[in-house]
Amino acid sequence: MKYKPKKLKSINRVLPRYFIVLTVLLIIFVEVVCFLFVKSANEDKARERLVSAGSEITSFINGKSDEAVSLYLKSYQREGINASVISLDGKILLPIEDEGTIWDGSIEELLSKIDISNRHSMVLYTENHTMRYASGIEYKGESILYVSYSMQIMQGANKVLLIYFVIIGIVGLSIAVLISYTVSSKLTDGLNNLSTTAVRFSKGDFGVNFANAEFQELADLSDTLNSVRDEVKKSGDFQRELLANVSHDLKTPLTMIKAYASMVQEISGDDPEKRNKHLQVIIDESDRLTELVNDILNVSKVSSNIDGLNMKVFNLTEFLYGIINKFDYLQETQNYKFMVDIDANLYTRADEEKIGQVVYNLLGNAVNYTGEDKTVFISLKKSLIEDRIKLTIKDTGKGIAEDKLPEIWDRYYRVKENHLRPVKGTGLGLSIVKKILQNHKFDFGVNSKTGKGCEFWVDFPAVSDKIEVQPALK
Ligand code: ADP
To answer: Is 125 exposed, middle or buried (0-12, 13-18, 19+ CB in 10 A)?
Structure first.
């Protein structure tokens, strides 16, 4: 069977449809409930009125003339109530106009309903849309008071009520249709706007602005799309910058290597002193290329977290001394001074190799950027309150301007500042540090002011050495 893509429905059609169905159901429900309520309330009222009319007439009849009673009975006709007094053989006694005529109902049936000997007994029943009341009374011996109320009057009122309900229903429905179309078209307009902007954005227009002030959800979506736009733009800028930087950084050593190789070939080949000097430049530049390629590999590795973290407990104190010792040659040959303040036997849990990269980078930067006194301060201290260890690496160099501080962690960022020594950095070191520490979820940061040197710090969790270092004791 041929694949047919599912045809999707438009909000403009679905939303009003649901809204209208819901409104119709709601109107029908409310109106039916109202109608039944009104109907039963009217019936109750009619029943009450009939009973009260019955007892009013019963008490009125006593000692009154036939004419007065007849007038009284007729006065009820204004309310749609017919009242008459009937003899036990089915003839009308009152009102006097009808006297002697045969009552049009079945007197036997009526008599079977009431207990004529009991003066207080009465019946109330509905027959042929007429509500009827009958009771035995004392008038010319025993007779029956018969009061009836035709419900047809009420049904007429009900019909009027129904007509009103239909009108209200139609008006309500029209309002519902109007509201639903307005809301859905506002919603679809908002979505269409966003989608048109998204199409422009997908074609590479980064100047677009996603906006919607009508609905909170669309405003949130617009904000998200705006930040996606910024991120995409940033990553595009970054890629371009990366390519430019990488190619520039690769080109310089390559040009040097080529130039010095040519010089060895053409000029210095026979002069061992010159040749060695030129070859040394080639070796230095090759080392720099290797360093650059390693940094690029590292940065992409830690960014994608390819290796994951190999977490284990290790002695951070010894580990730090191990790294500092590797910088001994600087102290011996170039008069660098490392001032250390390191607590003994501090243990932490981390990826040892990656933390090594962090410390190397921070120490390397401190050495590169420190001031004329060539002093670097290293401290590793355990907090007295919490189980934390703080590593600080401080130098006496020119420092970093406060407004530049957030940017130094970005890839390829290098402060344009003349430092004491020409520094051959790649601008990748701190971004590697940041990524590794973020992967560890360790706090870190830098305090600095122009001219006041830099203090980089990392917060390690302190753990007991007995946990994992000596598994045999567990
Ligand atoms: P680089 O290889 O250039 O040192 P980094 O990512 O390690 O790259 O550092 C980024 C930038 O931050 C450096 O170019 C430098 O301007 C600044 N920076 C880093 N450490 C220091 C420091 N200790 N003192 C002054 N500036 C520093």
So the answer is: exposed
Q: Which residue has the tokens 């250390």?
A: 340
Do the bridges between strand 81-87 and strand 130-138 make them parallel or antiparallel, or are there none, so unpaired? unpaired
CA proximity to 122, closest of 142, 144, 106, 93: 144
Q: Residue 80 burial (CB < 10 Å; 0-12/13-18/19+)?
A: middle
For the CA of 430, the closest atom of ligand 1 is 6
Has residue 39 got a pLDDT over 90? no
Question: What number is the average pLDDT over the span 365-383?
Answer: 93
| Choice between 452 and 381, residue whose per-residue pLDDT is larger | 381
What is the position in ligand 1's atom list of the atom closest to the CA of 398?
Answer: 25
Q: Are 451 and 402 spatial neighbours (Cβ–Cβ below 8 Å)?
A: no
Cβ-based neighbours of 470, under 8 Å, separated by 6 or more: none
Confidence band of 473 (pLDDT split at 50, 70, 90): very low
3-state helix, strand, coil in the chain (%, to 5): 55, 20, 25
Distance, in Å, from the CA atom of 149 to the CA atom of 198, rounded to the nearest integer, reads 74
Angle at 242 between CA 236 and CA 248, to 5 degrees: 140
Residues having CB closer than 6 A to ligand 1 are 361, 365-366, 369, 395, 397, 399-400, 408, 413-415, 425-431, 454
Radius of gyration of the chain from its Cα atoms, rounded to whole angstroms: 51
Ligand 1 centre to CA of 415 (Å) is 7
Q: How far apart are CA 71 and CA 86, in angstroms?
A: 16
CA dist 197 and 192 (Å) reads 8
What average pLDDT is seen over the chain?
A: 85
CA distance readout (Å), 373 to 59, 321, 337, 377, 398: 125, 22, 8, 12, 12
| CA end-to-end distance (rounded Å), the chain | 65
Ligand 1 closest atom vs CA 395: 23
Percent of the chain exceeding pLDDT 90 equals 32
Token digits for 148?
Answer: 């009836």
189-216 mean pLDDT: 89
270 SS3 class? helix
Q: What does the pLDDT look like over 90-105, one tens digit per residue? A: 899 988 888 888 888 8
Q: Is the pLDDT of residue 470 over 50?
A: no
- Beta-carbon count within 10 A of 344 CB: 9
pLDDT in tens, 404-444: 888 888 876 666 555 555 555 667 789 889 989 999 999 99
Q: Mean of the pLDDT values across residues 153-177?
A: 86
